[in-house]
Amino acid sequence: MNNAPIVQETGIAGLLLVHLPVHEDARGWFKENWQRAKMVAAGLPDFRPVQNNVSFNRLAGTTRGIHAEPWDKYVAVIGGSVFGAWVDLRAGEGFGKSFSATLGPGQAVFVPRGVGNGFQTLEPDTGYSYLVTEHWSEKARSGYTFLNLADPSAGIPWPIPLAKATVSEADRTHPMLDALTPVGPRKTMVLGANGQLGRALAALAPADGSYEFATRGQMDITDARQLAALDLSGYRAVINAAAYTQVDEAETPAGRRASWAANVTAVGQLAVACTQHGTTLVHLSSDYVFDGRKPSYTEFDAPCPLGVYGQTKAAGDAVVAQAPRHYLVRTSWVVGDGKNFVSTMTRLARAGVDPSVIDDQFGRLCFARDLAAGILHLLDSQAPYGTYNLTNEGETVSWARIAAEVFAALGHDPGRITATSTDGYRAAHPAMAPRPVHSTLELSKIKATGFIPPDQFEALAGYLAAYLPEA
Ligand SMILES: NC(=O)c1ccc[n+]([C@@H]2O[C@H](COP(=O)([O-])OP(=O)(O)OC[C@H]3O[C@@H](n4cnc5c(N)ncnc54)[C@H](OP(=O)(O)O)[C@@H]3O)[C@@H](O)[C@H]2O)c1
């Protein structure tokens, strides 16, 4: 006997009708009402319910709705039959679209957050169960949106006229569609909003209120109590752009402590919070998790960090990889709105300083704007979860070559730059932490998702024009 559910589209984005195999004999019937592996294989989202409710209705004609809830929901009949009606109450093109179907034990419906549900029992003693992805709470009540059962534009063909139906007083008085505020998108929280990546995300993310930004002053991720108070109910994603990024200071006793606190302990707490709420965690990894002995690295290469910063990043990566919904975005040599190699070279060029620059460490730049664009792409395209390398495209180059490009682009003589070896530089800067010789990250995996990172030197020209106009 075929035991696989069949998933059917409904015309409302994300609302799915599921046909369930029901096994009947003289005693009654049996069905696998929810079987995650089979449902996901059949085309349902990887739904992780935390609460199961059952509604039992004595009379035929009992009518409830139309309620759009702040979570995803899977509804299935456990006895009798119901007429179900759904109206898309989410902001966007689909707003107001409706769909209806009769559900018996052989049908179930996956209802995404923001789609309104209405149910009318067609037989006495009808029960239906629903699995939901958030715990119900008083606070959740404010996340509901209600539509009148008799809304003329939705035009639901209730089999039992509403005048003869059993309907609660509250459900009789809900507003019509034209008086409704559509349900907004689920929110994304950006932590470390004042860093290079945080600022780039703020510049690029849609300004429709769906992105929230917290600086270290607003949310210190090393403060366990603050992090524990972060309520992720209804959040689609957390982008953790916060990190301890002072590579050399991380080698000091105080820096080591701070680096572990921000890059590991806090990340573990975030991963647990995201797991509990079904929230996607986007976290940033670094080329410094590698020892740099290979000319380039894929997502499959095992970490082998040289210094404390890299060790803490590698430990954070291992923690993030345990979250069921995660994007671990590994990048290198980030250049954005903040202190970075390009801004330093610009300052030195303009100040008339002739720098010594290392020419035996190799990698590729990643402009924070392109890093932010790649992260938004992963989230919006719902790319498969996992680790992704993400930098700009182009040839592998040394720091000295990049310095020369910056000087030349700004109209200064690249001949003012003296190339030096890592050992030579360390002799003059003994506190320099160990750094990988090779930092190039292979980009084929992110490109296969449809994101094509721009060339690093084209991006450099745009960066210099946008961020660093001559004083
Ligand atoms: N920069 C690079 O070359 C590079 C290379 C590879 C990977 N990465 C990774 O990419 C990510 C973003 O880097 P970035 O260049 O944007 O770094 P960044 O400019 O140094 O920004 C890091 C941000 O994190 C904040 N922060 C530090 N400790 C915090 C805490 N306890 N709670 C909350 N916020 C805290 C900082 O706050 P303040 O503004 O108050 O200091 C800063 O705004 C990091 O994970 C980093 O490890 C960077």
UniProtKB/TrEMBL annotation:
Keywords for this protein: Isomerase, NADP, Oxidoreductase
Transmembrane segments: none
Pathway the protein takes part in: Carbohydrate biosynthesis; dTDP-L-rhamnose biosynthesis
Enzyme Commission code: 1.1.1.133
Pfam families reported for this sequence: dTDP_sugar_isom, RmlD_sub_bind
EC category name: oxidoreductase
A GO molecular function held by the record: dTDP-4-dehydrorhamnose 3,5-epimerase activity
Ranges of residues in domain RmlD-like substrate binding: 187-464
SUPFAM superfamilies in UniProt: NAD(P)-binding Rossmann-fold domains (SSF51735), RmlC-like cupins (SSF51182)
InterPro entries: dTDP_dehydrorham_reduct, NAD(P)-bd_dom_sf, RmlC-like, RmlC-like_jellyroll, RmlC_Cupin_sf, RmlD-like-bd
Annotated function: Catalyzes the reduction of dTDP-6-deoxy-L-lyxo-4-hexulose to yield dTDP-L-rhamnose.
UniProt family annotation: Belongs to the dTDP-4-dehydrorhamnose reductase family. Belongs to the dTDP-4-dehydrorhamnose 3,5-epimerase family.
Protein's name in the database: dTDP-4-dehydrorhamnose reductase
Originating organism: Paeniglutamicibacter psychrophenolicus
Organismal lineage: Bacteria, Bacillati, Actinomycetota, Actinomycetes, Micrococcales
